[in-house]
Amino acid sequence: MTSSSGAALLVALLLIPLAGAIVVALLRDNDKLAKQTALGFALVELAVAVVAWIDYDPSAERFQQHFSLDWIPAFGVHIAFGVDGIALVMVAVTALLVPLVIGFGWAEKLPAQRTAGGFLSLILLQQAITIGVFAATDVFLFYVLFEIMLIPMYFLIGNYGGARRQYAAVKFFLYSFLGGLIMLASAIGAYSLASDELGKGTFDWATLVEVVSNAPLSNQIWIFLGFFLAFAVKAPLVPLHTWLPDAAAEAPIGVAVLLVGILDKVGTFGFLRYLLPMTPDAAVELAPLVLVMGVAGVLYGALLATMQRDMKRFIAYVSIAHFGFIAIGVFAFTAQAEVGAVTYMVNHSISTGMLILVIGMVIARGGSSLISDYGGLAKITPALAGVFLLAGLSTLSLPGTNSFISEFLVLIGAYGPEPVYTILATIGMVLAALYVLWLYQRIFHGPVRGSALVNVAGGPGTALAPEVGARKAIFDLNGREKLVLAPLVVLVIGLGFYPAPVIDVVTPSVDATLQSVGISDGGN
Amino acid sequence: MSALTSVLLLAQDPPDKETLAPINYGAIMPLLIIIGAACIGVLLEAFLPRHQRWSAQVFLTLLAVVGAGAAMALYLSDAPAEGELTLSDSLAIDRPALFLWGTLLALALGAVLMIADRSVEPGGALVAQAAVRPGTKQDREQRLGAQPHRRDAARFQMQTEVFPLTLFALGGMMTFCAANDLLTMFVALEVLSLPLYLMCGLARRRRLLSQEAAVKYFLLGAFASAFFLYGLALLYGYAGSVRLADIANAAAGSDRSDTLLFAGMALLIVGLLFKGSVGPFHAWTPDVYQGAPTPITAFMAACTKVAAFGAILRVLQVGLESTQWEWRGVLWGVAIVSMVIGAVLGLTQTDIKRMIAYSSIAHAGFMMVGAIVLNEDGLSSTLFYLLTYGFTTLAAFGVVSLVRDADGEATHLSQWAGLAKRSPLVAGVFAFLLLAMAGIPLTSGFIGKFVVFSAALSDGMAPLVVVALIASAVAAFFYLRVIVLMYFSEPAPDGPTVTVPGAFTTAAITLGVVVTLLLGLVPAFALDWADAGTFALR
């Protein structure tokens, strides 16, 4: 067992944002103080996450820093948390993105009658629950957190979102809630298997993995399908993805970062943590289904991303393409593809998070999320254009950026067992270059044009030289924005050249996951 | 009524004086306290001057409910775990009965507090005199309520007969779910129903709607009672006894006519399903819930459901246990119909009370899922579900009674728009209760659904569970719609105000909300209690 200091770290990771949420909720009268307090809690959380990362020893046992309390003894339910390598990196990314989101939203204007305290309190609550989802080692607890994770997000979209926020919030909630309920049926099914097998039911993850993975294939398939549906809605795989473009387009920028960057990863995280170990036979049996959905996502997401007129919807379709890619990596069942998929989860959070933030900065300047409202922005804001380009290149996995190594590992690892799907997915990479660069070109290059930039300041001479007016009203990145983007720039380039820290942490956990499917470290 | 009962009693063998077991007064003390207090309440009504009645009745009623709870706790300290029969075996005081009694008493405490409240509506939510005809001058006067500045305010205080009526209904409910023979069960059914019919018609405002609800409830209730009685008669003809255990024995091994058995069983169950407002016998529910005064609706929705399902569980698991293969398929269908009707028709409702009524029909379907699981898990999970449902519903109606405009309660959904901006606390509490009804984790509703569904899955009813899950998701939509209205919509300029509740309604809502939260966070103790024992099978 690990040291108690490790468990204390995890408890702190769960409780700091929770405490922050309560404190910030009490500061609704004072926006400035609320922002400072929230940022303070988020930075402390980040510091603790860094310590937890250092404390985690990849060469030791898989689950560390764990602790457990009885919750409902009648059903063998525990409040049990612990992290493996995969959960640890997701927790760390969550802790990284939240302060950036708070920093980004510092000067953002909230809708009428909404306070920064309420908004930030929900963000911190979301953070606490999401970290709980990644760290839960009891299936019941996981389900509970998986469902209540929807509530802060529902209010974040519905209260602070765009014009169609009500529709988007309800759609988001119902999709995820139905998926979750079906997962609950599967979780209960797994529980009954355990109680038949052991005489006493339990929801302990390790015990359920032990019991269910030895169950007959017919049982496994039902349990697999229930969990898979919930995760496929969450991660959105085509055709269960239709809530994401609405939710991402209506959510405020910071919330979209958390939604696409963190929440959706719970789906792919679930593939790795629950589907593969618990129902290995069913996973192998049904892998073609997932691979088809993955490839469909890659191609469909890429094509639709190319066609989008709205930048926020663009992000949603790009993510759908990437989630398809991660699903292919997970269900290729080779060590390389699997490590690639896990690191892709991290890198996607970083690069897509960055892309959403820079798009948010563009929108903050032009007041519109339509691509056609912009043009030639690079002449006015060269630094923003540079960061935008970097985020875009990371999204299309250019060598030297963080995503390249993940995508490369997925393709290499998946090509052996699944050449057809892999070749089809490669077409998605080509399309990625198309949609990213075309977006960049339309917004930043050519003459200054578009209703968001032209005539913004008015005055004489603007009709002849549109950028004169735009230059008066639109400024390049300010100090705060540079501070928000700097850590992401460092990570994109740093992990692009030296990905070992992430790969080393996740590899033992990935190997353990693969062993449970009956594959021991195939390609390495 | 009494003539009918005595005629039917003659049908039983007259008990032999020598062999009659002594009555266990300790076991039935809670029941005696409630019925006794109800009789005293009637006398108070006759002899006390008008201005003293309210305080005397409220005091007596609360004392009776708390006293009955204390008597039950006293008995529980050394009660036999397998339960015991008393009053010539006509009552079975076993663990499920005691669990239901405890639930009923706690829910009734909350409901009585709401009924007694005179601050939300000046003078109380109930009419000053039931005889006042709608639309007359007296009606217009009493509708304004007991305004404190008026010298004759006392004339417009609420009618206080409602308190003994509540106690009688409560006594009937307690007997209903402990009855060990069908005849006692029938008498209890009438004792619980008749006061409720009256109480539905006592609303201070919208008198016509209220009286319509009362008539509708009475007529349909009378039909249901008749069904029950026919079923009883046929089963007596079949088994030669009205005792549940005798019917089970007769059905287990006999060559008697199955027609009598099946017809009797079907009619009996229809009568019970009506009381539990299980679809497709639910037609009265939305109208009655809407028309009745809200505190009475709260009492009816929470307590009647508990009592009815207590009786359904006992009849199915004791009396009809041996014939389960005959009725189980039909009740599968009933459960599905109830869940689907509740969830789908709930979507189209525009009145908050009707919406909760359809929600209760859907919940009745979920309870049926648990009730037809014929093992200990089925019993304990349904009992637990009843507990969670009762408190959530009680508190929800408590909140409904607070949102008002000049015409009384603002029950149209559009009037709830933007409520969160006007009174965040009330909106927050109601949102929490709605999430509990939807079955979101960390509320009691989730644990209730979880135990029922896992009991059903363990008994091999996976298709039914899938239907239940889909119904849950559909129902979640209309709960969410109210949250959307309250939180994400702009308030209407002439929207309703939220009345600051007096101590009574506050206490009732707090009770419901705290139990909903506690059972969601730490359900272990209540689960253990629900699982403490089974029906006494004699």
From TrEMBL, chain A:
Question: Topologically, how does it sit relative to the membrane?
Answer: Multi-pass membrane protein
Domain called NADH:quinone oxidoreductase/Mrp antiporter transmembrane: residue spans? 136-430
The protein's UniProt keywords, in alphabetical order, are: Membrane, Transmembrane, Transmembrane helix
Q: In Gene Ontology terms, what is a biological process of this protein? A: ATP synthesis coupled electron transport
Q: Which GO terms describe its molecular function?
A: NADH dehydrogenase (ubiquinone) activity; NADH dehydrogenase activity; ubiquinone binding
One Pfam family here: Proton_antipo_M
**Where does it primarily localize?**
membrane
GO CC, alphabetical: endomembrane system; membrane
**Any transmembrane segments, and where?**
6-27, 39-56, 76-104, 116-134, 140-160, 172-194, 221-240, 252-274, 286-307, 314-335, 341-364, 376-400, 420-440, 483-500
- Which intervals of the chain form a coiled coil? none
Q: Where in the cell is it found?
A: Endomembrane system; Membrane
Task: Name the protein family.
Answer: Belongs to the complex I subunit 4 family.
**PANTHER family xrefs:** NADH-UBIQUINONE OXIDOREDUCTASE CHAIN 4
The protein's name in its UniProt record:
NADH-quinone oxidoreductase subunit M
Lineage summary: Bacteria, Bacillati, Actinomycetota, Actinomycetes, Pseudonocardiales
